[in-house]
Amino acid sequence: MTGAKTAVETAAAVRSGDRSARSVVEEALAAISSREEELHACNEVMADSARARAGAIDAAVAHGEDPGPLAGVPIALKDNLCVQGELTTCSSKILEGWRPPYTATVVERLLAAGAIPIAKTNLDEFAMGSSTENSAFGPTRNPHDMTRVPGGSSGGSAAAVSAGYVPLALGSDTGGSIRQPAAFCGVVGVKPTYGRVSRYGLIAFASSLDQIGPFATTVDDAALLLETIWGPDQMDSTSIPSQPDPIGAGSDVSGLRIGIIEELTDLEGIAPEVRASVERAASGLEGSGAHIERVSIPSCAYGLSAYYLIAPAEASSNLARYDGVRYGLRVDGADVAEMNAKTRAAGFGAEVKRRIMLGTYALSAGYYDAYYGQAQKVRTLIIGDFAQAYERFDVLLSPTAPTEAFKIGAKTADPLAMYMSDICTIPTNLAGHAAMSVPFGTGAEGLPIGVQVLAPALGESVMFTVARAVEGLR
Amino acid sequence: MTTYETVIGLEVHVELATRTKLFCGCANEFGAEPNTHVCPVCLGLPGSLPVLNRTVVEFALLLGVALNFDVPPSSIFHRKNYFYPDMPKDFQVSQFDEPICVDGWIDVAGERIRIERAHMEEDTGKTTHMGGGGRIHDADYSLVDYNRAGIPLLEIVSRPDMGSAEQARGYVSELRAILATIGISDVKMEEGSMRVDANVSLRANSTDVLGTKVEIKNMNSLRSLGRAIDSEIERQSAMLDSEEVIIQETRHWDEVAGITHGMRSKEGSSDYRYFPEPDLVPVAPTDEMRKVARESVPELPAPKRERLISDWGIGSSDARVLVDDRALCAYAEAAVAAGGSGKDVTNWCTGEILGYLNEHGSTPEALILRPEGLAELVALLADDTLSRSLAKDVLEECLATPVMPREVVERRGLAQMNDEGELAALVDEVLGRNEDAIAQWKAGDEKARKKKRGFLMGELMKTSGSKGNPKVLNQLLDERLHD
Ligand SMILES: [Zn+2]
Asked: B136 pLDDT band (50/70/90 cuts)?
């Protein structure tokens, strides 16, 4: 929005010595100062450590060393990523005062590439939400319209990039938590193939669905960031052991077979402008030589229901450890059980509690088969349906979110309406595939719309090619 | 009065002797300062993830071979969810319906005991309740040591195939010997590296309906396992006799009082909400790993006992003593390999040497007398160079100082007198100065004769300085007396 330089440009300038990392950092800090009070995208601004790192990078350049492909590029981190010694909150009161003694793999890789983490960004508590209104520290606002949400759960990261604080940010995507806020904030957001990016140091919401991914203003910047953080990691057993091939810089879609997912595009509740954007992107791609067809993936319709059993089930277990015994908030009680209960009652917000209860129920004896077991079957079905579709298509298209950004408070009283805003993004997480959102067009209120490009597992290269082509159509 | 059949099944938890923990690189070490072997993973810190220790799978495969298990193509981990302060994640990573080992068995005293499964799981931390007599409900506060959190365990679950405390002890004893032989655990019940829980139920002999099962815990030796089971059988019989209803529960064995106590708990109603652990991938041992396991299981206790019995001609109880003590058995085998006779070596090992080890709290590896020395001692006895009584003297010296038996015999002139002429002269001399005794022998009844003969034999040995060959002397004495 501010005409700031891209990450590619900034890194090139810092590596060549044309620009100092210090000046880049100061510019980012100034941008944060100018808008943070109204936006509230950040839980913590790490000004001191960012300045120190910038100094070190400038010194390295002065010594003729190469600080790496992201030299001097400031980056915002969703506040569910662990950074040693820095407050890491998940926007929850229950992690009050906790500073991790270790750093997430993705952040280690960023540091090794010369990037400068500058802020921890706001999120829906434990990444549970679609608007960043479920933060214990108050909502983040959409930089395009202060009365509207930035989407969620990675709303802080999306807003930070959209507002020009930083060219890059990391988020996590469990059911759309990168792509949906990217669409709402008019930036690029990527959910990589499950297992492509190490989850070590990402505070879990739903382990079998969580995946870390980039926010950026351009498709190229997103690719640069993804290539920095991905690849095998011995600390994550679900990490894919093979080295990924480079994403490449292509944008030629001629001969590619692209399918528009009917179930997600023609759905009731999809705003006409959103549908129109997808169709306009498709015809643009057709104009560039791609074959466009509509495709039905029937099981997509059940994705939302399956997701709201699997994700809460895993969350109910993942969040059990916040019991007041070892770290974070503790509210004393007469005995351990009472201390646990009081701590959790005081530390978790309403949505987190709702999902813990949902998940606990779904896993309970006598209900497991009907709920969790059944949801896993739907998941298998979705994987099968997508596999069939990808026999005929290289990539698929759909809306990223049904509407443009909604008003703050519009859906907080109605959890189901809120859940619906992830309907287009959830199937990808259930399938473990890759997908990304590219800004394309505006809605009735003049707010950004995102088009979703979906690819099979390990299909990042072709996905980025198509995303770049969509970006070129703007 | 009704008689009851006892049905016992055992759950045995074994701490594995790996270098590191199940899911992280922390040291697996007993007795360190509290909370010094911990990291983000075994503390279950937010964002940490487990990575399976390959050695644990290799150990499970060894167990699979040793206990005749099937090892399915793949197994998975589940989460067992419940809140407890010594469990850092408030769930335990364990295996549930797809364990690594299924359908095994071992033979114990000629009876086959079926083993349902063995599965991998992580241990919990250890809570110490301070004040209030160390009980959780009365404690002022509690301290948790997470060094034990994440230590790898194998839980071995038998079928309810045992019918008595003695059989249960036999099973655990055999299991312990097997685990020690394959080297996957210290198997020390006293230190908790092997923990045995027993499920005990009774049923009237006239029915085949299983009784209500009661789980008993907290036995820290084979002896207390036996006592606890017997006590539980007694308790349940008395209840059934008076038509009381036995409730399914967990009871704690009280070693001092010699009884089991019911635990204040919600057991039975607990719902662990098991579901597949999403942070781990299925465990699929390769053919290569299976092959390595098959080839690296050493000779197991049962076949080893049989071999010693048949090759060395020793009794089954000696064979058990030897095989249950791996180090002593290795020592004995080395002595036999060095030329000692198996039977003689066994006698010395299970007799004087074991006595010496127990008395000095020592181990066979630490003995000054090496197996070759024992072989030499046995040979000196066998070829009549040394008498049995002097051999004990020689052994004593060889256990105390680094010297070989033959050297001792030579230096101290202890070689047995075997020369018949020399011995005949000795007999002449001794009988010459004991004519009274000879006369009494000749006049006496059988009892008196036996006594006098013993006296004369004692004089002969004494005069020879214990070196006279007793067999020859006996023979010569008889000849002279019956002249
Ligand atoms: Zn550890």
From this structure: low
**pTM, two decimal places:** 0.90
Say how far apart CA A70 and CA A86 lie, in whole Å.
Answer: 21
User: Tokens 């202060």, residue?
Assistant: A146
Per-residue pLDDT, averaged over B142-170, amounts to 97
B165: left (phi over 0), alpha (psi -120 to 50) or beta: alpha
For chain A, percent of residues with pLDDT exceeding 70: 99
Is A172 noted as a catalytic residue in this protein?
no
pLDDT above 60 (res A167)? yes
CB contacts of A337 in chain B (<8 Å) are 83
CB contact under 8 A, A208 and B137: no
Nearest-Cα residue of chain B relative to residue A335: B137
- Cβ–Cβ under 8 Å, residues B216 and B8: no
Ramachandran assignment for A197, one of left (phi > 0), alpha (psi -120 to 50 degrees), beta (any other): beta
- Range with lowest mean pLDDT among A65-69, B156-160, B472-476: B472-476
The whole-number average pLDDT for the span B460-478 is 85
Query: Is the Cβ pair B271, A365 closer than 8 Å?
Result: yes
Reduced to 3 states (helix: H, G, I; strand: E, B; else coil), residue B101 is strand
Instruction: Enumerate the β-bridge partners of residue B119.
Output: B155
List the catalytic residue out of A131, A177, A398, A421. A177
Query: What torsion do the CA atoms of B348, B351, B352, B353 make, to the nearest 10 degrees?
Result: 70
Question: At B440, which CATH number?
Answer: 1.10.10
Query: Do both B320 and B268 map to the same domain?
Result: no
Contact check, Cβ <8 Å, B90/A320: yes
CA A147/CA A150 separation, integer angstroms: 10
User: Do residue B281 and residue A237 have CB atoms under 8 angstroms apart?
Assistant: yes
A154-158, B25-29, B379-383: least confidently modelled range: B379-383
Q: Does the CB of B361 have a partner CB in chain A at under 8 Å?
A: no
Active site residue A78: yes
Note whether A72 and A111 are within 8 A (CB).
Answer: no
User: B281 and B304: one domain?
Assistant: no
Which residue matches tokens 């010595």?
A: A17
* Residues B439, B379 share a domain: no
| Residue B333 and residue B196 in one domain | no
Residue of B nearest to A371 (CA): B275
- Shared-domain flag, residues B311 and B403: yes
Does B263 or B381 have the greater pLDDT score? B381
Q: What CATH class is the domain A1-474?
A: alpha beta
Q: What angle do CA A209, A212, A218 make, to 5 degrees?
A: 125
ipTM: 0.96
Residue tagged 């095994």 (tokens)? B104
State the Cα–Cα distance between residues A18 and A11, nearest whole angstrom. Answer: 10
Report pLDDT digits (tens) over B208-254: 777 899 999 999 999 999 999 999 999 999 999 999 999 999 999 99
Please report the pLDDT score of residue A253 as a whole number.
98
Cβ atoms A161, A76 nearer than 8 A: yes
**Catalytic residue selected from A91, A130, A131, A153:** A153
Q: Spell out which residues of chain A touch residue B45, defining contact as CB-CB under 8 Å.
A: 100-102, 327
User: Could you tell me the residue range of the domain that residue B353 belongs to?
Assistant: 299-412
Q: Which of the four pLDDT bands, split at 50, 70 and 90, describes residue A1?
A: very low
> Is the confidence at residue B73, as pLDDT, over 60?
yes
Instruction: Residue A201: list chain B partners with CB under 8 A.
Output: 47-48
Cβ < 5 A residues, ion ligand 1: B 24, 26, 39, 41-42
Q: Does the beta-carbon distance from A340 to B79 stay under 8 Å?
A: no
Q: Which residue ranges make up each domain of chain A?
A: 1-474
Query: Distance between CA atoms of A202 and A235, rounded to whole angstroms?
Result: 12
Total Cβ atoms within 10 A of residue A360: 19
Nearest to A166 by CA among A103, A224, A117, A226: A117
What value does the mean pLDDT take over residues B300-304?
Answer: 96
Task: Give CA–CA dist A72/A24, Å, rounded.
Answer: 7
